[in-house]
């Protein structure tokens, strides 16, 4: 009887926190499907995870291994906008990723301890991998870590720019009027406003940088074997259908954590890719609070704000008189240290907990959490939907504007906090999400979407079937 050779997938995320963890979940799902997995971090991030999680955090299994690439990370600087840091890292990957990745795959193929590499799952921000997989004649699947909504906007970038130029030629219009213009001509963006779409349409994002769009990237992604999204059909069916005409094979396999919840394996639960130490004390603090009484505040791993916004937000939370768990990274403030007013800390010491990082999914699923004030990054939003937690949406850049618009205007699961807010507005919206009539409606709606997510990730749900189809139709086939 001929020996059955195990299939070997190489998973390579873009080297930022918000891309590593969701890619790791996909790697775990594929491992459970029987694949030998090689997960590839940069040397810098590999060391960061070991520093945060301990020297044995990435020991892996014989058929789930971790490798590194020697890509130099640009210096992180809180004085520079998140989009500039992102662009610098993209440029570094573009210059330095392909050659060491080619060498790594050659080494893996020459190692008797593992089967030859048969396919690759790549971050959609690392489109250069398409060149390598075409050379090796193997399937390459790109992962979008944005919602399908944001990618639809990105895919129709040219049309958006033409409309923007037309609007800017109307000097009588005020900027706010222009940003509130409805954009109905782009597929999958029903009732979208100019301000909701990617920050390229706003001339400058709130961090002061005009985002670049690469047609070459989109062309390379369109040549891939398939693209996958951490979403589900009932949530973004229209957008997913629109993208199938751009990318061909499109698979929605989310929420991925819900799929993992059906798998009982200590290894999957113990291995994560966090680059910072979470503070588990916050979970004990949450245990002492009443159900639905805490507003959770976090702006992800890369967004930055201003000292004035921080102060207004702090006093708005204090004035609301509600409990809050607030995640404040050391580099959250643009161009300054992150220091909260002493009077604020004194006034809220009994009902506030401030941490530098936390296990977010555990926090969102804690019964004491009643709402989530979020930057609207897609990881945070899909985790909030999965937990049935309503949101206060304060987007910062990129696809976050589209996510906020969807949440507030279509899905009915969020309330919008506009830029330039004062403490009174924060106080009012926190009160509304936790105890107001609008908040009750939003809570009811997000629980409906949670139920649909559970259905999608059930044994015969759409996301489960899509994952099976991805494996059978793409990863098991020749490129």
Automatic annotation (TrEMBL):
One of its GO terms (molecular function) is anthocyanidin 3-O-glucosyltransferase activity. Keywords: Glycosyltransferase, Transferase. Pathway: Pigment biosynthesis; anthocyanin biosynthesis. Its EC number is 2.4.1.-. This is Glycosyltransferase. It catalyses: an anthocyanidin + UDP-alpha-D-glucose + H(+) = an anthocyanidin 3-O-beta-D-glucoside + UDP. The gene is LOC105108433. Belongs to the UDP-glycosyltransferase family. Residues 7-182 form the Glycosyltransferase N-terminal domain. PROSITE patterns: UDPGT (PS00375).
């Amino acid at each position: 009887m001929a020996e059955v050779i195990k299939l070997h997938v190489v998973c390579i995320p873009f080297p930022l926190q918000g891309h590593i963890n969701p890619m790791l979940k996909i790697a775990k799902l594929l491992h459970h499907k029987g694949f030998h997995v090689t997960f590839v971090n940069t040397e810098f991030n590999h060391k960061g995870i070991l520093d945060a999680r301990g020297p044995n955090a990435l020991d892996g299994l014989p058929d789930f291994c971790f490798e590194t690439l020697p890509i130099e990370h640009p210096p992180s600087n809180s004085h520079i906008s998140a989009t500039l840091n992102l662009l610098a890292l993209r440029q570094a990957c573009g210059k330095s990723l392909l050659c060491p990745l080619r060498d790594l795959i050659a080494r893996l193929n020459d190692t008797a301890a593992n089967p030859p590499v048969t396919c690759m799952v790549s971050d959609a921000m690392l489109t250069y991998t398409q060149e390598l997989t075409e050379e090796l004649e193997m399937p390459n699947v790109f992962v979008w870590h944005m919602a399908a909504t944001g990618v639809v906007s990105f895919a129709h970038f040219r049309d958006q720019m033409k409309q923007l130029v037309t609007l800017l030629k109307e000097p009588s219009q005020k900027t706010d009027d222009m940003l509130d213009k409805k954009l109905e001509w782009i597929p999958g963006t029903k009732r979208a406003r100019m301000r909701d779409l990617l920050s390229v349409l706003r001339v400058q994002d709130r961090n002061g940088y005009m985002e670049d769009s690469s047609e070459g990237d989109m062309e390379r992604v369109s040549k891939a074997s398939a693209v996958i999204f951490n979403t589900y059909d009932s949530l973004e069916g229209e957008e997913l259908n629109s993208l199938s005409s751009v990318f061909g094979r499109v698979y929605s396999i989310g929420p991925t954590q819900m799929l993992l919840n059906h798998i009982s394996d200590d290894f999957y639960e113990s291995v994560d890719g966090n680059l910072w130490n979470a503070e588990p004390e916050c979970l004990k603090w949450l245990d002492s609070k009443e159900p639905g009484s805490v507003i959770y505040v976090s702006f992800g791993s890369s967004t930055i704000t201003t000292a004035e916004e921080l102060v207004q937000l702090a006093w708005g939370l204090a004035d609301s008189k509600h409990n809050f768990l607030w995640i404040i990274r050391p580099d959250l403030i643009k161009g300054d240290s992150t220091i909260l007013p002493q009077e604020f800390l004194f006034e809220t010491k009994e009902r506030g907990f401030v941490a530098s990082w936390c296990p977010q999914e555990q926090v969102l699923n804690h019964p004491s959490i009643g709402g989530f004030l979020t930057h609207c990054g897609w990881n945070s939003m899909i985790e909030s939907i999965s937990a049935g937690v309503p949101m206060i949406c304060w987007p910062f850049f990129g696809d976050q504007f589209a996510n906020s618009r969807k949440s507030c205007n279509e899905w009915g699961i969020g309330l919008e906090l506009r830029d330039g807010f004062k403490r009174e507005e924060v106080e009012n919206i926190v009160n509304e999400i936790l105890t107001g009539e609008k908040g009750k409606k939003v809570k009811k709606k997000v629980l409906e979407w949670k139920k649909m997510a559970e259905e999608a990730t059930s044994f015969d749900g759409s996301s489960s079937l899509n994952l099976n189809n991805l494996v059978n139709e793409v990863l098991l086939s020749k490129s």
